[in-house]
Amino acid sequence: MARNVWDSTVGKKTVMAVSGLVMLLYLLVHMLGNLKIFFGPSDYNGYAHWLRTLGEPALHYEWALWIIRVVLVASVVAHIVTAYQLSRRDIRARPVGYVHRRARATYATRTMRWGGVILALFIVWHLLDLTTLTVNRNAQPGHPYQNVEATFHTWYGDVIYIVAMLALGLHVRHGLWSAAQTLGVGSRSRDRALKTVATVVAVVLAGGFIAVPVGVMTGTVH
Amino acid sequence: MRLTLRIWRQKNATAPGAMKAYDIDGVSPDMSFLEVLDTLNEKLTLEGEDPVAFDHDCREGICGACSLVIDGQAHGPERTTSCQLHMRSFRDGDTIDVEPWRAAAFPVVRDLVVDRGAFDRIIQAGGYVSVPTGSAPEAHATPVPKADADRAFEHAECIGCGACVAACPNGSAMLFTSAKVNHLGALPQGAPERETRVLDMVAQMDAEGFGGCTLTGECATACPKGIPLTSITSMNREWLRATRKSGRR
What we know:
The structure holds two protein chains of two kinds.
Chain A: H1 2-7, H2 9-34, H3 41-53, H4 63-92, H5 107-110, H6 112-130, H7 144-152, H8 155-182, H9 191-218
Chain B: E1 3-9, E2 18-24, H1 33-46, E3 69-70, E4 73-74, E5 95-99, E6 108-110, E7 113-114, H2 117-126, H3 146-156, H4 163-167, H5 174-185, H6 194-207, H7 218-222, H8 230-246
Parallel strand pairs in B: 1-5
Antiparallel strand pairs in B: 1-2, 3-4, 3-5, 6-7
Helix pairs in contact in B: 2-5, 2-6, 3-5, 5-6, 5-8, 6-8
């Protein structure tokens, strides 16, 4: 069955849909967790510490976090590999283009591939910035609240983050609805509802993430 | 009406092609698009030039032979087949681009004619029902609920023209394949081959070199028969079900 799924375009899309939904679920929780920053440093840093002790005593310190990281890396790799393979196939399927070109599909749909590349690059930046603290000047390990502030006190930190979150919103808007179609849960009567859900999730997700740099810039978070 | 047609001219499958402009006068708004090509071809023949090769048959919008990309849109600006497109959809003095379907799986044979044999092979892979064909069965032996009959008929409307492939940015044949899968899958006669049909047809579709579906919706917008985009969703559901049930490796 695994062979059958991997060899088929429909199967590869299923892998994309499932891995995308796993990442989306993580992002929703991540976004809600981020909002704790508006309750001050002790709440936020306490929450960050709690993430490390999650599952204790059944799990060891940071084990839950590492399990989540392994699942996420697997999802990111599966999503990127299937996207790359399917995209190559799609490009090969139309070797000669039309002379008369016209704008096709919606902006969110047309930007899925490059939007995805932007998001992949952002994830690398984001990990170097707030996980390993490699590129974060004035960062102190164990003080996430202060590190987030340090990031969003730089203009480039704000620009990179906000652009990436807008790209995320667009990606999720087409991606979530598409995942529903790929997994076969869409139907004509449900289509409008699914599109609305995808748009609402995209706006809430991007808005929730962007609230943090906006909070730092406006001094709500200090 | 006076028009300029810019038409893709290509001698054969291997020769390089190019767009060539032709001025044509005295076009009536009531002419169909194919009649304009006929008029042009008469003129070209008299002038000793090769006429433009294009596919056509019934000219009633029911056979699926005509296959023109007009101004970048499969079958042109109206939601119908090229033969049912009339010149009233254009304005006097327009320049109109006419190109063949573009897909690796639909190689150009000549000018505007492409080889759509890939669709036949997808049908051969599973787009049929196996029934004994001796005497006619008793009419009430296999009742079909009205809703199922309607659903089957909606998808049976697909004429296999290939506009979905031509319109799709990925040259995907998902809408065509899903129309066939859903048509037969909705009927009791199609039930015995339900799993093998969708698995084999999708496998053949992939083997022909069509692209994958990215749900841009271009196919359903171009389809002259109005096969809905959710037809693809239904096929995905069928494919996942068949993959689980068949245990095929």
